[in-house]
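Task: fold both queries, return tokens.
Query 1:
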Amino acid sequence: MQRLEVITRFLLALALSVFLFMSGISLPPIGALLLPFVAQPVLLFGVKYGIGHGLGVVLVALLVLAIFGGTELSLLYGVFAVLAGALLALVGRLRRVEYLVVAAATAMFAWALGVARYFFGSWAALAGDFRAGVSQQFAAATRMQEQLGFSKESLELVKERMPQLIDMTLQLLPGLLFLTFAIVALINLLSLRRRFPERRSAWFAIENFRNWKAPEPLVWGLIASGFSLFFPLADLARLIAMNLLLIVGAFYFAQGLAVIAFFFHKNNVPRFLRGITYILIVFQQIFTLMVVGLGLFDLWGDFRRLGKDNLTSSQAS
């Protein structure tokens, strides 16, 4: 009976993972919302029945997609297979959530680079294809603004600056891709945390996101990458500095959100007001930068007094 249950759950995890993946790539853009959860059935099965069984699911999924969908689909699914393998191997061993997320995102990023090189043959071809795609998206957005009745002055300004915007997006593509993978990894970790509450203390060093704080040495990466942009550097060095600044800034953005969530919880702020605040933070650049600054200054201000008050886990949360 136990063996039959394992086989049934194995096939269910396999079917759900492949279904989510195929739906995600077949129904853009709405289907893209399903892609972060492709690895979740594998993770749930692997946590319950063991790492070997979880890895077995992704290996069979890769084989099925290669046979019935082709090598390209199998390689794309490999991004989520790498995520599942990394999290199954590291959850419970790396208890700092930022280390888990960075490790998983790095593995996904490395696989994605290999797949991109396989598809396009060279980085120049990849950059050219991406530039063409972004140009089409910007053009479509401009046409939509024209239909919505935006002023001609603002539209002309957008068209004038479009080449610079495309170049900037292309330069920041590695950092944006890495952050996308990091968000996907974090979503899966939060889902595991919710599904297995009894394992939280064994898996994670903190009880709640509201208590999270970026590693203190990370500030030197922010300082080095920020100041390096003001000095004459080789193109590759400047590209690395820009993407590093983007990634480190995302860490302090997350810390700023944690500070806000901490005081929202402490003061019992209504969920409606919390939602409005988070929407403003996401869609208004000035608020986004303010949250990054809040997270950065929390290193010295310790606004939540995490390092001063000897709180229990229940009191802190």
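Query 1 returned. Query 2:
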Amino acid sequence: MKRHPKNNNLKLFFGESYEGFDVLLQHLPMVEEYLSRTLYVTRLALLKHPRTFAFRVDLHFPADWSFGTNDNKPLERFIASFRAKIFHNRKLRAEESEYAHSTAVSYIWCREIGEHGIPHYHLAILLNRDAFIKLGKFEIGRKNLYNLLVEAWASALKLPVTDMRGLAHIPENHAYTLTPDDRDAFNDFFCRVSYLCKSRTKHFGDGVHSFGTSRI
């Protein structure tokens, strides 16, 4: 197994599938440890919620951002804010209905450096599908899951929500419904999210992590 040339603790993966699941071949090589963690988090999410709503989102900094991008603190603030908003949403629903469902917040993320040296984040987030079934319309100001994402990233950047257009980007074909007996859906999701595990565009040597996941 070939070690990563810039991080000897990581192994490069060149296979067509990982533990029986497809990967995006055009983005090989990938980091084996990242693939392993992605598989673990996805399986754990399904154990928590046998009906899981999973989706992709990309977080960008403003083009004129000048407040530092040399750590992952903005992402940490985003995750903390998003979790708080999700739990508050569920608390309000529980007050309205005894049948409201709670949810854990599972996630996988990677940090990449763009052409101009400004980082951006790719994330996959997994929630209980009995609590959330879609993001809703991608319009700022609506009361839906998409706006919880936008508001959380705005909070992380300390910007008004009105300045957030395009900064929380939802890619095409972003949503997946996962269940324990649907291997095809699981495979499609894992293949899509293997993009986050690719070696290319990751930056090593500055003490800033390029990949991470939820822990529980």
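Both queries returned. Flag for query 2: DSSP finds four helices and eleven strands in the chain.
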